[in-house]
């Protein structure tokens, strides 16, 4: 009996431990699978941190910084050293006999440009403009990523709301179907009412499936913008809401022309094109440099005797180059015309972008008001249709039509809120709002 008791006790302990292990695993799995909670600010911060577009723009800026160092190097001295090992066949002037001799030479050369006709200075100024240009590119990339993260977040909110809305529609039609089936069982309605209600519920379930798929796609898209694994589950904390925008269209256009990185980049590109003209024109100006040489040579390795040196100021002037410099100047002139027109086109495009975003935002704002009123009236109409049908004075079609109208009204309201917020985000980007 004692042995049997011990065996049973041991068995119960093992079962308890195994159950505890399974529960612990279940708890760990549940925690690991918990969705990531995000606000809009969280979404933007993750996108700015992880998105490769910003890293590529920053790499371009780093490269421009090194290009500036390269241009500045053209103004400083250069020191070079060369060593030459030679084997020379010569004929003696006294005996007339040929012999082979060895010759070793070492030479150090120091060169300092004194005047380059503006070529070096032009390259430095252009490189500085390049740093400014790519610095603006980093800000442009940040603004675009912020917009992408914001619109994807709003899209996630919209699709989530549409899932809730379609689920609500399914629940309403399911409740109505049960009411119709009950009345059919009592013999107060025809079989056609049951069939029509079943069809409408099935259609609503189809819409719910589509809405859920759209939500899943929106989540994957948002993960992509934020640099997260595409299967990451998200739980968004915010809601689509309406906040009044306080600036006029004219103010927005002026702010955009002053703040947009693309507008400043276009002006910088024009300035760089002007520098190219100066650089090309330097070919017609004299070049002055200071050269110093020191050499050692003899017939024994490594050639350390017979020191020679020289210091010279060398001036050169291009007299004829088959119109090479002229062609370069004319090409730079044409590039300046193109850059100027590109700047004008870019600024026109910015104004158009601001206007489109602003007007679309206003249009959505008006739809928010009208669709909100429509939702209120559609809810009242649906309730009346339900009461009338239950009382036997209304038709099944009245209930279904009013429910469809209610779903459409709520869908229009959600769409209007999304359109307003997404176009407001586009407007913020269009006027060049800085990313903090």
Automatic annotation (TrEMBL):
Single GO molecular function: porin activity
Any one Gene Ontology cellular component term annotated for this protein: cell outer membrane
InterPro entries: CyaE, OMP_efflux, TolC-like
Lineage: superkingdom: Bacteria
Coiled-coil intervals: 194-221
UniProt keyword terms in alphabetical order: Cell outer membrane, Coiled coil, Membrane, Transmembrane, Transmembrane beta strand, Transport
Any matching Pfam family: OEP
Keyword Coiled coil attached: yes
Compartments, record wording: Cell outer membrane
Family: Belongs to the outer membrane factor (OMF) (TC 1.B.17) family.
UniProt name for this protein: Outer membrane protein TolC
């Amino acid at each position: 009996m004692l042995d049997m008791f011990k065996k049973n006790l041991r068995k119960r302990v093992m079962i308890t431990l195994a159950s505890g292990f399974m529960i612990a695993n279940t708890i760990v799995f549940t925690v690991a699978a918990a969705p990531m909670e995000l606000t809009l600010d969280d979404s933007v911060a993750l996108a700015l941190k992880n998105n490769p577009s910003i890293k590529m723009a920053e790499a371009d800026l780093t490269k421009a910084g090194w290009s500036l160092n390269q241009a500045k190097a053209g103004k400083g001295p250069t020191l070079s050293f060369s060593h030459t090992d030679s084997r020379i066949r010569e004929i003696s002037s006294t005996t007339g006999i040929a012999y082979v001799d060895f010759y070793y030479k070492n030479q150090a050369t120091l060169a300092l440009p004194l005047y380059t006709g503006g070529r070096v200075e032009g390259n430095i100024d252009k490189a500085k403009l390049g740093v400014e240009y790519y610095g603006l590119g980093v800000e442009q990339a940040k603004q675009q990523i912020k917009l992408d993260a914001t619109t994807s977040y709003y899209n996630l909110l919209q699709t989530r709301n549409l899932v809730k809305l379609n689920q609500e529609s399914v629940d309403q039609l399911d409740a109505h179907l049960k009411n119709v089936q009950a009345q059919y069982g009592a013999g107060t309605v025809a079989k056609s009412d049951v069939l029509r209600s079943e069809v409408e519920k099935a259609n609503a379930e189809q819409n719910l499936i589509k809405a859920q798929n759209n939500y899943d796609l929106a989540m994957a898209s948002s993960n992509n913008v934020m640099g997260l694994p595409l299967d990451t589950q998200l739980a968004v904390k915010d809601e689509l809401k309406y906040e009044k925008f306080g600036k006029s269209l004219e103010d927005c256009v002026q702010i955009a022309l002053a703040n947009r990185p693309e507008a400043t980049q276009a002006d910088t590109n024009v300035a760089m094109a002007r520098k190219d003209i100066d650089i090309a024109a330097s070919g017609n100006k004299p070049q002055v440099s200071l050269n110093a040489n020191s050499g050692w040579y003899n017939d024994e390795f490594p050639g350390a005797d017979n020191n020679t040196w020289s210091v010279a100021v060398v001036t050169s002037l291009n007299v004829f180059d088959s119109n090479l410099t002229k062609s370069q100047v004319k090409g730079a002139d044409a590039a300046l015309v193109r850059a100027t027109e590109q700047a004008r086109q870019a600024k026109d495009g910015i104004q158009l972008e601001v206007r489109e975003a602003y007007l679309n935002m206003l249009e959505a704002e008006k739809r928010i008001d009208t669709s909100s009123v429509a939702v209120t009236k559609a809810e009242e109409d649906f309730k009346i249709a339900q009461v009338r049908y239950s009382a036997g004075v209304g038709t099944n079609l009245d209930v279904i039509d009013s429910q469809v109208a209610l779903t459409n009204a709520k869908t229009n309201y959600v769409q209007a809120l999304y359109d307003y917020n997404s176009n407001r985000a586009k407007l913020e980007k269009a006027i060049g709002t800085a990313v903090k």
